[in-house]
Structures are given as structure tokens and as C-alpha cells.
UniProtKB/TrEMBL annotation:
Listed Pfam families: Helicase_C_3
Entry superkingdom: Bacteria
Extent of Pro residues compositional bias: 177-190
InterPro entries: XPB/Ssl2_N
Region feature (Disordered): 171-207, 355-374
Residue stretches of biased makeup (Low complexity): 191-201
Native source species: Streptomyces tubercidicus
Domain Helicase XPB/Ssl2 N-terminal: 451-571
Protein name per the record: Helicase XPB/Ssl2 N-terminal domain-containing protein
Amino acid sequence: MTNLDAVEGLDALTRSLAQRTPEQLAALLTRHAEPLARRPAPTELRGLASALWSYETLHQLVLHLDHPRLQVLTAAARISQERARNAAAGPAAPAPGADYQSLMAHRLSFAHLASEPVPPEDVFAALGGTSPGRTRSVAETALHALYDDGLAAPTEDGAIVVPPRTPQLLAAHHPGPLLPDAPRPVPEDPAGPATPAAAVPPTSPHDESRAAAATLAATLDRLLASLATQPAALRKSGGLAVREIKRLAKAAGATEPHTRLLLDLALAADLIALTRTPSGITALPTGAYDDWLARPPGARLAPVLAAWSGLWDIPTHTPFGETPTALVRGHDRHAPALRHALLAALATVPHGAGAPLPPLPFTEPPEQETGSHSPWQDLLRAADWHRPLAVTHQPMAGERAAHTLHEAAYLGLTAHGTLTPLGHALLADPRSLDGPLTDLLPPLLEQAHFQADLTAVVPGRPAAALAALLTSAADRESEGHAVTWRFTPTSVRRALDTGHTADTLLEDLTRASATGPLPQPLGYLIRDTARAHGRMRVLPAACCIRSDDEALVKELAAHRALHDLGLRAIAPTVLVSARPPAATLDALRAAGYAPALESDTGTTTVERLPTHRATAPVPARDHRAPLALAHRLLGVPAPPHEAPKSGGA
């Protein structure tokens, strides 16, 4: 009988899904993309209904329910369970001291898993919404939201059907009375009749967000550049070693907790990949990093901030007794809901009324007088309304919330105890951050100001090409609102070593100059360094060929078939080849000779064929895939321009 009720519930949900338009179904698939991605893609509406009501998906979805929706779902589930028990009572409760099998048989019996349709009026009555009013309207709105998200389904006669596992999932949740509106994190009038002028912060949240975003963009740029130059090796037990985090933190100019945060965000944004090598697992930038460098600053930060909103971890929070690390896939499914709850609570705080962030390391604020709450407790209470299962119901609630808020401030999402415009944009839609970030971060600069003291100053964020040119010929000296490079004989010699001549370097720098011709001291430095460059030459050679037979050496040097090797004699019995040993051996053997490979110790080496592994490309995310899948599930032909490029969803 239990299975029959479950089937009828899925039938009701399937009928509800079938009544939607492709756009409505695509919106549901997009909202639930993260939990549904952990299961095989459905091929029919019945499969989608089963996926939505599976325990794992259901567990993930209820974490993101606000107080009214959770209250309605909890009330419907408990009434449904009571109706199921009355309709067909399960086995009697085991006697005290019963064995484990009897206890589990009772726990998994029909009365604990069954669900019966519930009239909406019974749910509204349980929540105190019998008569029209604010409570009733909020409960009705919450019920329709549950229908929209597939967490409940209406039957043909208008009753409510909830997933059969809901009573188990919410057994530990004590709903209490329904609160139609979220508690305010600050009092209505925190400063009394008049707010002292000194209490108003000197800068606006917009200004603080602009400064934080600029610092974040520069820090992330340096961090990924350092990782591209020297990939980081992970420990055998997983995660970066402390010494690697210290190295990257020094290169990025950031603290170690912020470095761990940026590394995890870059990994979640597909800018970093973990690659297995013969020496172990290595972290290095992906091919998407090159495309990322070509974007303007706002477009660079957008995927990183979007990754923060959905990250299953709080990277800057390390529980007591654990070693801080980075680049470990998180398992904290409550973290995204906690972020949303805190940002939603701060969204209602006006400028000048916010409380300062709690200092780290976190200590619980002292208890207030009876009947009053501290600003910190008021904030957590308000956050609890937005995500009741993810804030104070979790262990170390205060520590987790404090670290989350410090991360939000570092990312430019909060300032002075309230949300910045960027924070409001992230809260509304993490996928639509390009516009707000473009307003915060000015365009990249293509030219620099060259000065007579052998420095070049870029009064803003330099473009990738300008930064690469200046870095190749000068040393970066300072960061901030303006970036400064200093030219020295050593730095100019570095540019000459990479293929520049004095003329080409002067030409490139002049083209990048915002003030016209270069200062004379810089021209003198470049030409003086170039005159001394190259007096001593190092001969490039990929490998050597040696033979005691001098006639054979002369024959090889003159052989037309070996012309591509670029053979040159440096001694009567030694030739240098411009090709690596493997290519040189192949060419010699193709010409009819029988060479042997020799190691650096002079012994003959046994050759083995090299093995090659192809790197699988990161699959592109097609924003049209949910709509295409919705058309297939509903059996509605998709317009030609909406058909995905591949057959997968």
C-alpha cells in the first residue's frame, strides 16, 4: 500500500509538470540544476518527478526553503502522515528492549513512510491562517511556490501531495508559529530620534565595493599568474600543503585565508584544474584562463563571484583541530544556503544602521539583558527566517556565519553592515553580474606614463598586453590605484634575452606611451644595455652525436637527408643537433644508420616508447540546454534556433 501511495503522488507531480509550458519547465530545471546534475538526465517527465522527490535531491532543495515555504511543507507533511496512520495503522510499537530488527521494521513501516493528500484548508488552519489576512496570504503564496518548485503537487480535486520522505527529512524541525515577515536585523530606529553624524560611515557601500573589487581583481590576477609560472603540487592526502599556500599568498599579496578562498573560487570557476602527473597531482590554470585574461576586469570577476554563491565550503573557516588547506572539493551542502540567508538579512539594513563585523577569531558575544538581543543575535535570527535549516541549526553556527560575512566583505558584497550594490545583484541572480561589475571597475588601460626616473606608471588597471610588455622589460614595484614598474639594466637585459632588440623594444614602449616620446634616460639605458648584450654567446643544442670515427662524423654533417637536424661540428668527433634525442635518432635510422642512445653517464640506454595522454576539454555549458530538455520532456518540438549543438542536455 505504501508503494501505491508513492506512485499516486508521483502521478500527481507528473501531471503538474505536464501542464507547464517549456519555458516554465526550463525555469524549474535551471533553479534545480545543481542537485539534478548529480543524477542521470531524465528522459521523461516521470523520471524528472522521481528525481525531484528522491531523498538526496529533496534534502538539497529543502535547505533553500525560506520560513513560510518550510512551514507549509512541514505542516502538510505532518498532517499527511497522521492521515496515513489513521487510514491504515502500521505495526504496533515494539516493546521496550526489542531487538534491532523489530525497531527498524517499525521505523520503516507504512505509517512512517506513507503520505496522504491533504486539503489546503487543513494546512492553513494548522498555521493559524483560517481567516483571510496576512498569515493566510503568505501561506497561499508559499504553497504556490512549492508547486512551482516541484516540492509539492496538487491533485485533481485540489488537495496537496508532498514527497513520501518529507516527514523523515523534517522530523527534527520544530516549526513553531508562522512568521509572515522576516525579523529585522536592526531595530526600526537604532539611534533614537536623531542619528549622530559620527555614526554615519564616511564612505558609501558603493565606494567600498569599488575598492574591494579592484583589489580582488589585482590579487586574483597575480595569484593565477604565479600558479601559471610555477604549478602547485598537492599533498598525497589531498589539498595544498601549507608551504605552497604561503608561497602563493606571498606572490598574490594576500593573506593565507584569502588565498585559500581565491584558489577554491578559481577551481570552482574552472580557471584551475587538478592534473595527475608522474610526480603526483598538480594544480595549474586551464585553457579557460587564457580566455579569462582577455576579458575586461568586470567579466573576469563575474564567474568567480558566481562560484562563491554556490560553493560547498567556507574556505576561510577551519574548524578547531583541522589543518587549513585549499583545492579540496567541499562537502558542506549548507554553505550556499547560509550565504543566501546572511545576504538576504543584510539586504534590509539601511546605510548607516549596520553593525560592524564580529572580529576573527570568532567569540560568541556576551548575553544581553533579559528581553533584548545583541546586533549579532538579531542578524542570525533574521537570517534564520530566510533559510531556517542552514543557519543556527548547524554546528558552529556563529563561527561559520562570521567567516562567511568576512568573505563577503572581502569580495565587495557587503560594507558597513549592509549589502553593496554588487551584493544586491548577486543575491538577485548570480548569473547577471557583468553589468554591476562593469559599473564598478573602469576599462583596462592600454598606455602608461613613462617618467625620467626610469619608472612607468599605469593610473589604473593595465590591459594584459601592456602588463606583459612592461613586465618583460621592467620590475613591478608597487600596486594600488596605480601600478608602477621600474626599468633597470637587469630588467632590460631580460627583455633582450627574450628576443627584443634595442630598436624593437623602444618602438613597442613608444607605442605604449601616453606622453609621446620616451624620456632620454630610458632610451640611454636600453641602448647601453643592448651594446653590452651578446658579447658572449651560448650555442643552442638539443643533443650531441659523438663517434670515434671522424670520417663518419664528416659524412653525417654533409648528408642531405639529415639537413633538418641542423648538424654542426664543434669538434672532430662531436656534432650538435638542433632536434631532441628522439627525433635525432629517428632521422639517423631513417637515413640508414644504426645509432645507440647514450645516457649522461656514458652508458647505453634502453629505449622505451613514450606514452601519450590526451587532455579532455572542459565541456561547454550551453544556456539553452534546460529549454531544449524541457521541449523533449514535454514532447513539444523545439524551434530550430533553440536546438542545442549536441544531443546531451
